[in-house]
Structures are given as C-alpha cells and as structure tokens.
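Field reference: sequence -> structure
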Amino acid sequence: MTKTLQFFFLFSFLLSTTLFSQNTPADSIGKEKKGGWVALPVISYSPETKLGLGALGMRLFKFNWSDTTTRTSNVQTYLIFTTAGQLLFSPTYFIFTNNEKYFINGNIAIFKFPEFYYGVGNDLPESNEEEVNYNLIRWENQLLRKLSKVHFGGLQIRYFNQYNVIREEGGLLDSTQVAGFNGSVVAGLGPVLLYDSRDNVVNASKGFFLELSATFHGHYFGGEYNFQRYRIDVRKFLPLNPDRSHVLAFQFLGNFVVGEAPFKQLSELGGDEIMRGYYRGRYRDQHLLAVQSEFRFTLWRFIGMVVFAGVGDVANNVGDFNFADIKPSFGVGLRVMVNKKEKVNIRADLGFGKDSSGFYLDITEAF
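Structure field:
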C-alpha cells in the first residue's frame, strides 16, 4: 500500500472515530470548570513506529478556573503497541500554577524500541540501514519561575538510560563502536530562559516563543558521558483573520552538542515535529539547524488543513554547514478538532524530503 493510500485510509478511520466522539466528554472539557479526564482510542503512524494502536488519556485543567490570566494546563499519556514491535508509554505535561507563577513541563518515557541506524553524518547512503533494538527510560523536566508577564527562568534536568541494545553482528554500529553503541546512561542539569506570549501551548494562533537552554551532562549527575547541549527554539504565530482560523506559523531550531555524546544524544534530523518527511535519525551529527513554516486554516467546522515547508541539516562543526548540502522538507496535513475551546487537534501529516517521505498521525500540533 502506498503512503498516500495509507494516509487516506488511516485518516478516514480517524475521521469516523472523531465524528463519533464529538458528543462525548472530549468536546465538553472546556465547558466544565472542573475539567475531566478523557480516554480515547489512538491510531498513530510514523516512519519510526509504523502503525500503532493504543489509548490516550488527556486532561485539560486549571488550579483556579476563575483565573482568566492563566493559560490552560494539560497532562496527557499514551500507551501504544506498534507493528514494528515497539512498546511506547510516555506521559507529557504542561502545567501552569495560579497566575502562571510557575511553569512546569516535561515528559517521561518507557520505550521498547527497534529502530533503523544509518551512521553519523549528513551524507549517508540508504544501504547503511540496519535495525537496532533497545530499551529506553527517559525523563526530561523544566521547572520555570515567572520573571515577568512573558518571561520565565529556571532549570532543566535530563535523564536517559538506554539498555539491552541489540545490534547486527558485524554491522555498522557493531563495527564502528561509536559512543553508546552498547547502551548508555546520560544525566544533565542546566539553565533555561523562556519568552512565551503564545495564547495556547497546545495550538497557538498568535504570539512569540523563544527558548534558550544549556544542559551540562556528566559523571557528577550520575551519567557516563561528559558533554553539553545548547538549544535555541524560536517560534512565531501570526493570525490572518479575526477569528484566528487562518494562521501562519514559523519555527527556527538549533541544537548543538559539544563533547563526546552517545549516538542517541546527537542532533537528529527528521521526525514528527520538524523536518517531517525524514526518518528521525536518518541523519545525525553534533549540530542541527532547521527552519520551518506552516499555514494552518479551517476547511469546515472542525476540519482543518495545513501546508508546511522547511529546510535543515546536521554537521560535525558549525562551520561545516553548507547551503549546497541543505535538505528540503514539505508536505500537507489534515486536522480534526476534538476540543474547540482549547483547540486540541488530531493531526495527519504527509511529509516529503530528499528521496524520502513520511506519514504522521498524532495529537496536537507539530510546534
């Protein structure tokens, strides 16, 4: 079955499921001041996981519903089994305390995850592809304090434990034995500065977002590797009409890894968030630069559409980035809104890259 047929088959299933759920509590979360949990069946797809089936639990809430200055918090978790033999369990959370004095966000993950490995670099042949199996425990968390109406500052903690790595005997990972080829424990701590004027953290229609962070990983935190990660994430959202049903969104992402990091901690190009159309990790190296734009618009009632495009690449040194090597990304997507008040969408994206493509079915926007 071609990816295009997969796209329409899976989206048709999604649409029928969502139409059924329009009169369920999922559509009334925002109307109930006390909020509530919603459990939905989930069908997902990406080049990394293939077809996944499971369940999603999501809660939208505030500590004080009369506080109109505080954005809505959300906690969601999913449990998915995939046709690629993966088990994915990952709670994520975005929590604002009253008056947004504190902002806590992060994710926890427990994965049993076979994936493809192509090596390290930005010019890797498809013939490099080999399957690597591993288990992963991950925790990333930011605790930020409000400094002004739109400024936050605080600390970030990162912990990754990759173990039970099973690689092809005599294969690329086995023969090159790059850092982390046999598993790794990574732990780090560092400062985060945030500027955030978005109207909604799930699906912004206006505002500006800037995150600057530095994470220092080392033995002193219980990890096995000493390296640093510096990250800059810039986003801008421009409403094009009064009801904000037409939005232009832009993102620039820079991820810079300094020092010897295990291969799973290197900057990876691709995935369901930026540079859609490339298998996540198809290209990986110390540094990543990428930019994308997206036009979001409503087609009819709770059905929307997006058109997106971007460019990006990875490199061993910042000075090695070359315009001639840059990789394109573009595609289209359909949206089904399952909560009108909080603008929660289920998204289906079909992305294309250089000699590659990918289909993504997920909840909430890519950025």
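Note: Residues 3-21 form the longest helix (19 residues).
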